[in-house]
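[step 3/7] inverse_fold.run input=structure_tokens len=603
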């Protein structure tokens, strides 16, 4: 692993030092954002924004590994078949083919950068994970994400053309009202609401797990990219599909620490209070069935055997695995469990499902283009078509790399040299992303000149609104977990939608909301104190979570079947008529009632 740089290198520029424009702004600094920054042409001036520090992202938490064909006994065709099978009929074939064929090259790029994957007799060590037909998952013990992110971070900080802005929270895209072309972003940074121009904005904000009460995601995973893109009118896709990880640590006071399914791949057993491997009651593959199957198996078992299934758990027993394998492969899991009084060599781990990964997102083509000219998306916030209704284990970090690498072909005028951009996703009303882009670009691809900034104004204090925001942050995830969690039904979701809409109205009437929701583009707003940054971040994330909750609920209510990560007790079967993508798009900014849902065919 590359040695970390001294803290002096991590200093973000002062707000007064920022240039008025970057060639490219990347919002998010997990694996997708970091790798994208490194792959962009080095003559471009890049602004890389993270709302925390470079070390905090869901990628940094990833334990399982990265799936890629590196074994002569394996093949891209087998990886493709496994991905399609896990995707439950909703993967786009060309996107998956592109992913698996590009995978080995991306792995070699990481090795060249210094990522220290585990090795066995000098060759890359591979493990088996759920729903893979071969051992093809590369890992660095059980902290693969941390190894990848730390290596990429060190590389980014050495690039003179990349300016890192830490603790910078993007509020919205900055749209040209005439052309509907994105011309930059509005952000909260160092006590001011600022506006930065860019010819390309890349959303790499990760997932939205914090909209659920039980999640393995870090606190920063509030669905920012999807919410921001939706408010600007981008086409969204398959938002109802959320993957619930079957085995998160479940102990009072402990975080929902993910116990990687690589543990089950190495031979751990999922058992009940009596030591019985109950998962075989629900699927012939038992604990190695796809994640959604295992999650529902645990949920169903707890529903029938415990008076309070919400707080109940089953057990993950690592003792069938050789102790030396546990020591070598899962040191971080050992350490975390020890911290909470669990000796994995002597006793099983209490586990239950938690929201883990969002398959849906902002619709993109193979060149990462969204339906908004000048806006791109990559990583978990994007819907590339590779995951379908259920992500195959360890394909998520791979997706960050393969699609991040495509930015090597980006030109700041928005045109692409890569042939990959010719393969596009089908979108609203039978059209395609590419067709929508061409239509929008015909209006104009030239940004309007930067207008002089108006005098700084003061923002109303958010202190008076803090109780309401605190209530929303507590109650909203509970509502979504109960209504759009592992098992869903139409009546419960309809009631939840109405509640979220009521909360959205309350939120819009807050004093700070009235001041910021109708802000004038280009106008700088100064906060009363730097400490207000934290308060405004709570406000902005709550806004995004309300939007994301509404979008997930509406999409789940729209799809009247069960498939992959979307299970409805009132429509428990797969329906052939629903072998399509669900599309959502807001046609009038600020009016959620003008968001329309429709179906789009697979590619």
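[step 3/7] decode complete -> sequence:
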């Amino acid at each position: 692993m590359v040695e970390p740089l001294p803290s002096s290198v991590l200093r973000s520029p002062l707000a007064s030092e920022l240039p008025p424009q970057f060639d490219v702004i990347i919002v998010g600094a997990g694996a997708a954002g970091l790798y994208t920054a490194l792959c962009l042409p080095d003559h471009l001036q890049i602004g890389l924004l993270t709302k925390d520090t470079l070390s905090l992202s869901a990628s940094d938490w990833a334990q399982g590994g990265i799936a890629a064909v590196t074994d002569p006994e394996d093949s891209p065709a087998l990886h493709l078949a496994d991905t399609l099978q896990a995707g439950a009929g909703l993967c786009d074939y060309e996107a998956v083919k592109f992913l698996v064929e590009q995978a080995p090259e991306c792995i070699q790029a990481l090795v060249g950068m210094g990522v220290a994957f585990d090795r066995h007799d000098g060759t890359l060590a591979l493990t088996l994970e759920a729903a893979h037909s071969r051992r093809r998952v590369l890992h660095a013990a059980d902290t693969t994400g941390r190894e990848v992110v730390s290596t990429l971070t060190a590389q980014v900080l050495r690039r003179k053309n990349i300016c890192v802005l830490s603790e910078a929270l993007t509020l919205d895209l900055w749209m040209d009202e005439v052309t509907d072309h994105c011309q930059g972003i509005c952000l909260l940074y160092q006590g001011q609401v600022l506006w930065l121009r860019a010819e390309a904005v890349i959303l790499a904000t990760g997932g939205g797990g914090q909209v659920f009460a039980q999640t393995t995601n870090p606190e920063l995973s509030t669905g920012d990219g999807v919410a921001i893109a939706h408010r600007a009118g981008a086409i969204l896709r398959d938002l109802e599909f959320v993957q619930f990880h079957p085995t998160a640590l479940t102990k009072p006071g402990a975080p929902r620490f993910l116990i990687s399914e690589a543990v089950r791949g190495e031979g751990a057993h999922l058992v009940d209070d009596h030591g019985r491997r109950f998962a075989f009651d629900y699927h012939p593959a038992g604990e190695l069935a796809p994640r959604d199957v295992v999650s529902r198996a645990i949920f169903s078992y707890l529903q029938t055997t415990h008076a309070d299934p919400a707080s109940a758990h089953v057990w993950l027993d690592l003792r069938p695995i050789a102790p030396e394998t546990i020591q070598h492969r899962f040191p971080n899991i050992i350490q975390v469990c020890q911290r909470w009084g669990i000796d994995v060599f002597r006793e099983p781990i209490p586990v239950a499902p938690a929201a883990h990964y969002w398959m849906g997102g902002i619709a993109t083509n193979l060149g990462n283009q969204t339906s908004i000219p000048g806006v791109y998306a990559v990583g978990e916030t994007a819907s590339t078509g590779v995951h379908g209704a259920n992500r195959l284990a360890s394909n998520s970090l791979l997706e960050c790399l393969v699609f991040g690498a495509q930015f090597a072909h980006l030109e700041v005028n928005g045109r692409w040299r890569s042939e990959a951009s010719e393969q596009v996703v089908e979108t609203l009303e039978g059209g395609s992303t590419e067709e929508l882009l061409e239509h929008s670009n015909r209006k104009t691809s030239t940004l309007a000149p930067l207008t002089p900034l108006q005098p700084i104004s003061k923002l109303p204090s958010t202190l008076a609104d803090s109780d309401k925001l605190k209530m929303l942050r507590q109650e909203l995830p509970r509502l979504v977990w109960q209504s759009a969690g592992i098992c869903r039904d139409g009546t419960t979701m309809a009631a939840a939608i109405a509640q979220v809409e009521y909360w959205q109205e309350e939120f819009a009437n807050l004093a700070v909301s009235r001041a910021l929701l109708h802000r004038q583009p280009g106008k700088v707003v100064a906060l009363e104190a730097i400490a207000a940054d934290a308060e405004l971040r709570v406000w902005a994330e709550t806004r995004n979570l309300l939007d994301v909750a509404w979008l997930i609920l509406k999409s789940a209510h729209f799809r009247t079947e069960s498939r992959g990560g979307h299970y409805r007790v009132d429509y428990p079967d797969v329906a052939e008529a629903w072998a399509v993508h669900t599309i959502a798009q807001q046609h009038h900014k600020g009016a959620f009632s003008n968001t329309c849902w429709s179906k789009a065919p697979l590619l």
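[step 4/7] annotate
Residues 532-558 form the longest helix (27 residues).
Confidence is low (pLDDT under 50) at residues 1-8, 414-456.
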